[in-house]
Design brief:
By secondary structure, the chain is α/β, with parallel strands linked by helices. It has nine helices and eight strands. Helix 4 links the parallel strand 4 and strand 5.
Length: about 260
């Protein structure tokens, strides 16, 4: 599996895309688009780590396209570098004002482009790691309420744009406090994580599993975790099983 960072190159001139690809293809996976409309679709499908964007293009120019990226919750955190033959200060300031993180001029200098791209990709990955830690529930490893709210907003934005349905499923573990009282909070935490793994397998990676509880998450007052999963599902959802997923737990805890 290719785990290299993904770079999206947007330029209406195929020759320019070939030059950039030759410079970056050893370290990155390259995808490209020849127009603004195509670029929006490719960006939403590939979710690149960085976008290298030409300014002067027919139809939608780079400034307009950058505004679209920054207004989209799914794409707004992707760094954009403008690459253009416009070398005046006014063009550079305008690019930075619409949300670009850097600005390079043509003709491309290979060594400088490699260093700029590498630096911005590394910074983005560090931000992603910090964001992941801030949006995870430390007890269960699920997304926390903040992540749930972000995902719901992104799904509502996508649904308003593309149509379709959003399914939200709320799950709760019956008698979880009694389980904690009988077997201790470490066992309760293990049971919560087991449920998380089972639900993720059932959702086949299509859903966001989050712990959406207003109670404290400390082991001393561990509430029953709640899984909330916003996702698009064109077919009718199958009924959720009410069985406790662990046979061992059912044998040890007679009510289940």
């Amino acid at each position: 599996m290719d785990n290299r960072p993904v770079i999206l190159v947007i330029d209406d001139e195929p020759a320019n895309i070939e030059i950039v690809t030759a410079v970056l293809e050893d370290e990155y996976e390259i995808c490209f688009a020849l127009s603004g409309e195509q670029a929006v679709q490719v960006a939403r499908e590939s979710r690149p780590d960085l976008i290298l964007l030409d300014v002067v293009m027919p139809g939608m120019d780079g400034y307009q396209l950058c505004r679209i990226f920054k207004a989209d919750p799914l794409l707004s955190d992707i760094p954009v570098i403008f690459a253009t033959a416009l070398g005046d200060d006014e063009a550079e300031l305008r690019g930075l004002a619409v949300g670009a993180i850097d600005y390079v001029t043509k003709p491309i200098r290979p060594a400088a482009l490699q260093r700029r791209v590498r630096n911005h990709v590394q910074m983005k990955r560090m931000r992603d790691q910090l964001t992941e830690q801030a949006l995870r529930d430390p007890l269960t490893g699920l997304a926390n309420r903040r992540m749930l709210e972000r995902r719901l907003q992104a799904e509502l934005h996508r649904q308003a744009r593309d149509g379709g349905l959003i399914a939200v499923l709320m799950l709760d573990i019956d008698h979880f406090k009694g389980f904690n009282d009988s077997y201790g909070h470490p066992e309760g935490t293990s049971a919560s994580r087991l449920c998380r793994r089972r639900w993720r397998r059932r959702s086949a990676g299509r859903a966001t599993c989050a712990r959406a509880t207003a109670a404290r998450s400390s082991p001393a007052s561990c509430p029953a975790p709640t899984w909330t999963a916003p996702f698009t599902w064109p077919r009718r959802c199958a009924p959720a099983s009410r069985r406790w997923p662990s046979r061992t737990a059912r044998r040890r805890w007679g009510r289940w």
